[in-house]
Structure formats: structure tokens, C-alpha cells
Write a structure and sequence with these properties.
heterodimer; A: extended; B: 239 residues; mainly alpha; 74% helix
């Protein structure tokens, strides 16, 4: 019988992700003196968070069609103005909801 | 004033712990709302409160949890999740490295224990405090504990509320992820130098999403764009 707390592989995935994350936190502190302060690896690491998020968001926006593109534009506008994540989410959802309702 | 010495008395430790928590209050409030957003999304993807709690306590990493929740479908690929989390949380290597002055002179087990509760928020507050007047690892831990409490409250409340919403598409709740990620992406924009890497990521992600299974497009797009950045930045700085 399946348990109701974790999906198959769920706990293993969480444990694996947790160990990886911890290794970086602790490992970074331990490796502190040996990490490059300049050079290609440093630029690569600095650029990574941004490029990952771009890769994540663009296909999902594209899958939401033209309604999604308008929704994303609204989100970017609100976030640039307010820097408020919750407000941005509400704006995006509301925009797409209204477009789907009327178009 | 030089506060760089390790806090040895228990009064000093408690006062640092308390000061760290107080300094992180504004960030904890934003962690509650941000966690609430993730909680609602997690319920939409069928993530249970037990899974959410395990992620909160064992992993304690906001953006990686967002992506994991997004990938939470059967069959669940441990390899794909591990690689994605590996890539997203690589930055903790640098964050950990930057905390070296705060931990200098403290024991290895203290380093091993306290580093688990390092998030972007308490890290930033601690580094700022350390540059201003010097601080110790207990300040960092105080912030971490408060953030863990805020983050758990937010995500679990959202998870509970979210499970009552049955038809996410009807209310465009399926778009909530895209909305949040678009905003987060914007906050990571560093200037003109990001144009080429981000365009490459965009192209790679769109192509790979059509032709490859699972979430590989995130990994390939992310690495591809960052490689472009490494190449151009390195070349520019050398000229």
C-alpha cells in the first residue's frame, strides 16, 4: 500500500536535494580560500542563477500562448514598479484569468 | 571597536542570536508571503504537507524548492531533481565561501551545524552587519532560525489553503508559477552583459523543451547561457 505522505521516490529526491544543498553550504565555507575570485569559472557561477530562471520561465510562458505573454508583460511591469512578489503573482494570475474569461 | 573575536560567554551568544533574529524580521515577513505563494503552488501540484515540511527542514532553500515543486509529478526523477538542485544551489558554494571571516576561529562542528541554516536573506544581513561592526555565527543562526519559522509557516499555510482549490486552470492559477519566476528573473538582471547569455538560454530552453523529455531544458538552457557569459566576460576583462 502506498503511503499518503510521500509520492514514490519523493523522500529520496528530497534527501538527495538536501545533501547536495548542504554540501555546497558547508563545502563553500571549507573551500573558501581555494575558490577563484576571477576567471571564467567565477563568471560562469555568477551568471548561472539568471540563465537558469530564464530557461525555466520562457518555455512556460510560451506554453501559455499569447495570453501568457501579456500576463508576463504585466508581471514584469508590476514587479519593476513595486518589487513585491505577492502582488506580481496576483497581477499575473488576474490578468490571464480575465483574458481567458473574455477572449 | 573590534568584535571579530569568537563569542565565548553564553550571554554574548544569546545576545547575538537575538540580535540576528531581530535584524531579519523584515526579511522574515517577506519569507512568509513568498512561502505562502509556494505553498499554494505546491498544493496545485499535489505536494503533501509532509513533503513540504521535509523540504523546509532538510533543504531550506527557496528557489530550489520552487523548482522541485514544479517538477513534482509521477514518475519522479531523482536524477533530474538532483541535477537541477545542484545547478540552482551552486551559488551556496560562493555564499558559504564569503562567510569565512564570520566563522574564523570557531570550531568545525559549529561551522558544520550553523551552515545548514544559511539562506540568501540571513547571509546578506550577516555580511552587512559584519562589515559594519563585526559579528559572529550566532547572529547568522538567529536569523536562520527566524527565517526557518517564517518559511515553514508560510509554505504550510499556503499548502493547506491551496488544496481546497480544485480547478486551477479556471482561475488561471496554473499561471502563478510563470508570474513568480518572471519577476524573480527580472530581479537577477545585471545589465547589458546579460543580453547574449539570456538570449542563448532562451533559445536552448525553447528548443530542448520541444525535443527532450522532462526538465532537461532548464539544465541545458542554464548551462549554455552561463557558458556564453563566462566566455564573453572573460574575454572582455582580458582585453
Amino acid at each position: 500500500m502506498e503511503n499518503h505522505f510521500f509520492i514514490e521516490n519523493g523522500l529520496i529526491a528530497i534527501l538527495a536535494a538536501s545533501i547536495i544543498t548542504y554540501m555546497f553550504r558547508f563545502g563553500g565555507l571549507i573551500l573558501a580560500d581555494r575558490l577563484p575570485q576571477t576567471g571564467p569559472l567565477r563568471y560562469f557561477l555568477d551568471a548561472l542563477p539568471g540563465t537558469i530562471l530564464v530557461s525555466l520561465v520562457v518555455p512556460s510562458a510560451e506554453n501559455a500562448g499569447w495570453q501568457g505573454l501579456i500576463g508576463v508583460a504585466a508581471c514584469l511591469g508590476i514587479y519593476a514598479k513595486t518589487k513585491n512578489l505577492l502582488l506580481t503573482m496576483i497581477t499575473g494570475v488576474l490578468t490571464v484569468y480575465l483574458i481567458r474569461l473574455f477572449c | 571597536m573590534t568584535n571579530a573575536k569568537p563569542a565565548n560567554t553564553s550571554t554574548q551568544k544569546h545576545s547575538s542570536l537575538y540580535k540576528g533574529a531581530i535584524a531579519n524580521i523584515p526579511l522574515a515577513i517577506s519569507a512568509i508571503t513568498y512561502g505562502g505563494v509556494l505553498g499554494v503552488l505546491s498544493a496545485q501540484n499535489g505536494v503533501t504537507w509532509a513533503e513540504m515540511s521535509a523540504m523546509n527542514i532538510l533543504m531550506f532553500a527557496g528557489s530550489a524548492q520552487f523548482v522541485m515543486v514544479d517538477m513534482w509529478h509521477t514518475p519522479l526523477s531523482v536524477v533530474a531533481i538532483s541535477i537541477t538542485v545542484f545547478i540552482i544551489n551552486l551559488r551556496y558554494l560562493l555564499i558559504g565561501a564569503s562567510l569565512q571571516p564570520v566563522f574564523s576561529g570557531h570550531s568545525l562542528w559549529r561551522k558544520a551545524l550553523f551552515m545548514h541554516l544559511v539562506a540568501d536573506e540571513n547571509w546578506a544581513v550577516t555580511i552587512a552587519e559584519h562589515r559594519k561592526s563585526g559579528t559572529d555565527p550566532f547572529f547568522l543562526l538567529g536569523g536562520g532560525l527566524l527565517l526557518l519559522f517564517a518559511w515553514s509557516s508560510g509554505t504550510l499555510a499556503g499548502n493547506l489553503v491551496g488544496s481546497f482549490i480544485n480547478q486551477p486552470e479556471k482561475y488561471a492559477l496554473d499561471f502563478a508559477f510563470t508570474a513568480v519566476f518572471a519577476a524573480l528573473t527580472l530581479s537577477l538582471w545585471r545589465g547589458k552583459g546579460d543580453v547574449a547569455p539570456w538570449l542563448v538560454s532562451m533559445g536552448l530552453a525553447l528548443i530542448c523543451e520541444k525535443f527532450l523529455p522532462g526538465k532537461w531544458y532548464i539544465i541545458i538552457g542554464g548551462i549554455g547561457g552561463a557558458l556564453v557569459s563566462a566566455f564573453f566576460d572573460h574575454k572582455r576583462k582580458n582585453n
